[in-house]
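Appendix B, record 7
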Amino acid sequence: MNELPVEIAERYGRSSSQLRKRRLGVILAAGGFALLFVIWVLWANLTGVVKPVFKTTAYEIVDDSHISVTFVVTKPVNTNVICAIKALKQDYGIVAYQEVAFAAGDSYGSDLVDLDWKANLKTTELAVTGLVDNCWFY
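Structure tokens (predicted):
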């Protein structure tokens, strides 16, 4: 490859010393971003909060306007949790929605507690299924 004359290379920022400085800057910036990414990953994994775990165990279509949904929530004893329960019709439209709150309790030996719950929902149409959509801390 042909080298540019020194005067022209310096004028347009292509001299060997300027290229070394630019390369060093790019390496330092990339290293800084990599370090920030590693710190973020460690922080996210080490400070992660236990999330409530939920599972729909059963549903029963009572009649055209009622459904019951049975589920289990596993949560830390000293936390408040809300769970959203939905009933869906044939085309996956929501025909009932209810939020159930679980208050913090006293700890007697275990850090986690399993709560069995049966929610009765009034539907606007015939439901074909019922489920726990999500649970979160409040």
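Remarks on this record: The chain has two domains: 6-46, 53-137. The chain is about 25% helix and 45% strand.
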